């Protein structure tokens, strides 16, 4: 019986050592998991800050600011389109006048008619 008790004591001692070693390994892996979680959380916070999600949420929660920003953006786009269309049309008319001055047989007459129609329209409609 004594031999059996000694064997059991030896087994318990070995299990205790094994459990202590396992808990040390578990503590290290838990610490590593915490460190990795912290790193990933930091990366997520940086990514969210770069995407300016907070400002977007604040904008959605403020209807007046949202309407004001959209109104100003729409007016700016409208003015930009008007100026751009004016520049393109003026450039096109300038080149059509140049082609009309070359007196090309068929194209010159057609372009001259277009220029005359546009000039007449511009002269007759005074704003």
Automatic annotation (TrEMBL):
InterPro entries: DUF5665. It comes from the Bacteria. The chain crosses the membrane at residues 74-96. Keywords: Membrane, Transmembrane, Transmembrane helix. Residues 1-28 are annotated as: Disordered. Residues 13-28 have a biased composition (Polar residues). This is Signal transduction histidine kinase.
């Amino acid at each position: 019986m004594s031999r059996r008790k000694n064997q059991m004591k030896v087994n318990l001692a070995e299990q205790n050592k094994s459990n202590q070693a396992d808990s040390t390994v578990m503590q290290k892996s838990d610490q590593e998991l915490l460190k990795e979680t912290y790193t990933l959380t930091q990366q997520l916070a940086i990514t969210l800050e770069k995407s300016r999600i907070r400002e977007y949420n604040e904008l959605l929660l403020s209807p007046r600011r949202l309407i004001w920003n959209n109104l100003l953006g729409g007016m700016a786009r409208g003015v930009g389109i008007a100026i751009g269309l004016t520049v393109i049309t003026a450039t096109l008319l300038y080149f059509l006048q140049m082609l009309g001055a070359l007196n090309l047989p068929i194209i010159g007459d057609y372009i001259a008619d277009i220029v005359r129609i546009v000039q007449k329209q511009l002269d007759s409609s005074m704003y």
